[in-house]
Write a structure and sequence with these properties.
Layout lengths: L1 H20 L10 H6 L2 H4 L6 H8 L10 H14 L4 H27 L11 H16 L5 H4 L5 H27 L3 H21 L6 H13 L2 E2 L2 E2 L1 H24 L2 H4 L9 H20 L24 H18 L5 H13 L20 H20 L4 H22 L3 H11 L4 H17 L4 H24 L4 H14 L8 H9 L7 H14 L8 H14 L4 H11 L6 H15 L4 H11 L4 H14 L6 H9 L1
Antiparallel strand pairs: 1-2
């Protein structure tokens, strides 16, 4: 029997790898660029220097703790293959996915041995088949393609792996304690393992902290206070208290100081209330994708989902909240007859509680379902097998295989879409024609392809057609999202380079200047302001450089603490001619007094002065290093002074 199940596990692993294989050569894009390919602290890794590994580990700007465990794995990819190749990174992601699938298999097997399922009378062979089925359908679900084949989402994978490891450790100990209690040593060992694994989860990605909240979920739904063969009411009540504490703390914080969380939405085009109301609908959308995996509805960008402005706008907001209340009540009522229903539902909601609640994150991403789907998959697999054994025991295995093969086909098809930038951009905009970012991504692809063509007679018409098509998609994005910098920057650049004769060609820059007065500056905006500056100091964009400088001044007046804007203006001055060097020094001098605690400004001054005034450069270097406690900038400065 063991040999048979091991062969099935191996076969399932092969099928999972085959489903993803075509997508391993897919492109880097979006957050891959700033976090990986344009991350100079990572790509300049010297694998022979320990300090270079440390710098690479802290090279990410994402998250509170910089996600060093995830970044060190990217550095290892670079050291092993000699470059950050898509295949190397995505093949490693696939290996992580397979390891997590095995963890799902083991996790499901432990859940099946829990006290609440003692009356189900699953045979040992049934338990293994259910666990294999759960691992296979989780790993082959096409929704997870955008996690596995999106290189930077290894962060989500490693966090999920650590969380599952922590839950497995808890279940191994807790199953023993439910029967025979525990010693003080065992309790201490379990606590230490949980703390260590929790730290590893958080250092992979901050939402790994959810492990501490998922443990009470398992206790409440699978053990219900059972200890040494007896149910202890005190243990059950205490667990409920631990489970509800995070919710109570958030409610108290909002009651005492409502702006405590709401103020963090200053750089978003939506409020805390709008995000919470919208998430009530999006969580149902996620469930829809998981239960009915129509790959036509999936995609990288989902910014075409309407915001919920209040309970009645749109009306589905109120409906979704009522539906969640009814679902929780129904799960509670069924907790004795079908305990896995409340297990799956609470696991799903708690796992989403960080990224789909009060934090000022973007509204929708598919990778946020990577961990939450585990609980649902385990619950579904057990309930499916249980019902199948009662209704059609001779067919349950056959139906399970058919479902797995269906998911394999969908996963393989979606992986093929992710195999190159052209197909990814095309299907993204085809499936989501009203998505601003999908239109931008497709326009960006068309523009890049057109620029790459040689301007020879046989290709000039094709090039023009590509640029015109790209321009139409940038215009479409502007129609859908008129308060976004990205399409305006690209339209200004395209019209300046290829269509200077258009009478309204200068309107895009005027709109940018106006937008700078009211748009809440976001990370993506800074990226395209940088693109605008690079274009403005080129020959084609010099005519409007003063207007761009004026726009930067407006942004700096609104965001006086944003040192990144200062450095952009510093770069812009290099293309303004005349005494630009003196003006750049004057700019730096003025801002050095203003941004005394900005590492980036101090480091920029050190780089600027190291050829002309080495003594003063070292002064700024010292000030910068005093702020840079993790020495994240050290390797870049070393290279500057070695030049």
């Amino acid at each position: 029997m063991l040999f048979q199940t091991n062969r099935i596990l191996l076969l399932a692993g092969v099928f999972i790898a085959l489903a993803y294989w075509s997508g391993l050569t897919g492109p880097f894009f979006f957050d891959d660029l700033p976090n990986l390919t344009e991350n100079y602290r990572l790509i300049n890794l010297d694998s022979t220097e320990a300090d270079s590994w440390r710098t690479a580990a802290y090279s990410s700007t994402a998250g509170m703790f910089y996600r060093p465990l995830s970044m060190i794995t990217f550095a290892a990819n670079l050291a092993f293959s000699g470059e950050l190749s898509p295949f190397s990174l995505k093949a490693t992601n696939l290996a992580c996915h397979l390891l997590i699938a095995f963890s799902v298999y083991y996790f499901c097997g432990l859940v099946l041995r829990s006290p609440v399922l003692a009356g189900s009378k699953f045979s040992e062979l049934d338990q293994k088949y259910i666990a294999i089925f759960a691992a296979a359908i989780w790993a082959l679900h096409p929704l997870h393609v955008s996690t596995v084949l999106y290189a930077v989402q290894r962060m989500a994978q490693l966090s999920t792996l650590a969380v599952l490891a922590g839950l497995i450790v808890f279940l191994v100990y807790r199953l023993k304690w439910a029967k025979s209690g525990c010693t003080g040593g065992e309790l201490l060992a379990a606590a230490l393992w949980t703390i260590i694994i929790s730290i590893m989860a958080v250092l992979s990605k901050e939402n790994g902290a959810i492990l501490i909240w998922l443990i009470p979920v398992l206790e409440l739904t699978l053990f219900r206070g059972l200890w040494a063969g007896k149910t202890h009411r005190v243990l059950e009540v205490s667990t409920w208290f631990i489970f509800l504490t995070p919710l109570l703390l958030i409610i108290v914080a909002l009651a005492i100081e409502p702006s405590l969380i709401g103020a963090r939405f200053g750089n978003r085009e939506f409020t805390l209330e709008e995000r919470l109301l919208t998430q009530s609908r999006i969580l149902w959308q996620y469930l829809g994708w998981l239960s009915w995996p129509d790959i036509r509805n999936m995609g990288f960008h989902h910014d075409d989902i309407t915001l919920s402005f209040n309970l009645l706008n749109p009306i589905t907001t109120l409906g979704s909240l009522i539906a969640w209340f009814c679902a929780l009540v129904a799960a509670w009522r069924l907790r004795d007859r079908s305990p896995l229903v409340i297990f799956g539902l609470l696991f799903y909601l708690v796992s989403h509680s960080i990224e789909s609640s009060f934090l000022p994150l973007e509204m929708v991403y598919e990778h946020r379902n990577y961990l939450p789907s585990v609980g649902l998959t385990v619950a579904f697999s057990c309930i499916f097998w249980m019902c199948g054994k009662r209704l059609a025991p001779e067919r349950v295995g056959f139906v399970a295989v058919l479902m797995t093969l269906g998911l394999f086909a969908l996963c393989a098809m979606r992986s093929m879409v992710w195999s190159d930038f052209q197909s990814l951009a095309y299907f993204n905009v085809k499936n989501h024609p009203n998505s601003p970012r999908a239109n931008f991504l497709y326009g960006q692809m068309l523009y890049a392809e057109s620029i790459a063509l040689r301007s020879v007679a046989s290709e000039s018409d094709q090039r023009k057609a590509g640029i015109v098509s790209a321009r139409s998609h940038f215009e479409r994005m502007h129609e859908l999202s008129p308060r976004d910098f990205a399409p305006l920057v690209m339209l200004h650049q395209i019209d300046g380079q290829f269509f200077p004769e258009l009478p309204d060609g200068e309107q895009w820059l005027s709109k940018l200047v106006d937008l700078a007065e009211s748009r809440r500056l976001q990370a993506s905006d800074r990226t395209f302001v940088d693109v605008l500056i690079k274009y403005s100091i080129s020959e084609s964009g010099l005519a409007h450089i003063q207007e761009v400088n004026s726009m930067l001044n407006t942004l700096l007046l609104r965001y006086p603490s944003n040192s990144g804007l200062v450095l952009m203006q510093y770069d812009l001055l290099s293309g303004m001619g005349g005494s630009s060097e003196e003006r750049r020094e004057e700019l730096l001098s003025g801002y050095l007094h203003r941004y005394t605690e900005s590492i980036a400004i101090q480091m920029a001054a050190a780089r600027h002065l190291h050829n002309s005034n080495l003594g003063e450069a070292y002064v700024h270097l010292g000030k910068g290093l005093a702020q840079d406690r993790k020495r994240r900038y050290l390797s870049s400065l070393k290279r500057t002074f070695e030049q």
